[in-house]
Amino acid sequence: MLDRSNDTLKKLANGDRQVIKTLYANVFPKISIYVLKNKGREEDAEDVFQKLLMQVIARYKTKTFTIESTIEGFLYVAGTNLWKRELNKKKRRVTNNEIVELVSEEDDFVLAALEQERWELFQEKLNKISENCKMLLKLFFKKTPYKEIVKKLGYKSDNVVRQRIFNCKSQLSKVIKSDVRYNELKEL
Question: Average of pLDDT values for 73-79?
Answer without folding.
Answer: 89
